[in-house]
């Protein structure tokens, strides 16, 4: 999986757009999203305007814990391809999402471990320079949402 970012409106705010292409092997999937809610250092939500899913809402929440900050991602989606998509969801779509979020967690860990200037990242994620990063992912049994606890500082 490779991601090409075509557009990312900064500074981030409600109304910002994110356009990217997911490259999965020889397949390229264009995805356009809009940030519909933004609460600095607390949460933001992006909603698919155009992309591979019937519907997609992704809420990112930053939760202060005794050990640092936990980033919680909640995804509510409708599978692509209508009824056929609902049939293949447990066998293809959901496992693909699990892979995508696992990949995202690995990349987040790599960035956290390799970033030289922790202060910029600390401001983004609310982590102090002494925090360590850790990942854990939970996939709900529900057909309509995935919850990923992808970044926990101080584990």
Describe the structure.
By secondary structure, the protein is an alpha+beta fold. The protein is 26% helix and 45% strand. It is built from two helices and eight strands. The chain has helices at 82-114, 118-125; strands at residues 2-8, 17-24, 27-39, 43-50, 55-65, 68-78, 133-134, 145-153. An eight-stranded antiparallel sheet has the order 1-2-3-4-5-6-8-7, covered by helices on one side. β3 (27-39) and β4 form a beta hairpin. The longest helix is centred in the middle third of the chain and has 33 residues, at 82-114. Residues 125-155 have low confidence and may be disordered.
Specify the helix fraction band. Answer: 25-40%
Succession of helices and strands: EEEEEEHHEE
Identify the strand order in the major beta sheet.
1-2-3-4-5-6-8-7
Largest sheet: 8 strands, antiparallel
- The counted number of beta strands is 8
Strand content: 35-45%
Low-confidence stretches: 125-155
Question: How big is the Rg?
Answer: 16 Å
Q: Give the helix tally.
A: 2
- Mean pLDDT equals 74
**SS-based structural class?**
alpha+beta
* N/C terminus separation: 27 Å
Shape: globular
Kindly list the characteristics that best describe this protein.
eight-stranded antiparallel sheet; disordered C terminus; alpha+beta; 155 residues; 2 helices
């Amino acid at each position: 999986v490779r991601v090409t970012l075509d557009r990312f409106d900064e500074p981030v705010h409600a109304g910002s757009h994110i356009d990217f292409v997911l490259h999965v092997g020889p397949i390229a999937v264009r995805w356009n999203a809009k940030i519909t809610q933004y609460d600095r250092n607390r949460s933001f939500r992006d909603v698919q305007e155009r992309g591979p899913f019937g519907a997609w809402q992704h809420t990112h929440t930053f939760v202060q814990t005794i050990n640092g900050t936990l980033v919680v991602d909640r995804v509510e989606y409708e599978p692509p391809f209508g009824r056929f998509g609902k049939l293949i969801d447990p066998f293809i779509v959901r496992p693909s999402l699990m892979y995508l979020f696992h990949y995202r967690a690995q990349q987040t860990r790599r960035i956290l471990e390799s970033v030289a200037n922790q202060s910029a990242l600390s401001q983004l994620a609310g982590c102090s320079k002494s925090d360590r990063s850790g990942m854990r992912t939970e996939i709900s049994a529900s057909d309509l949402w995935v919850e990923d606890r992808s970044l926990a500082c101080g584990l």
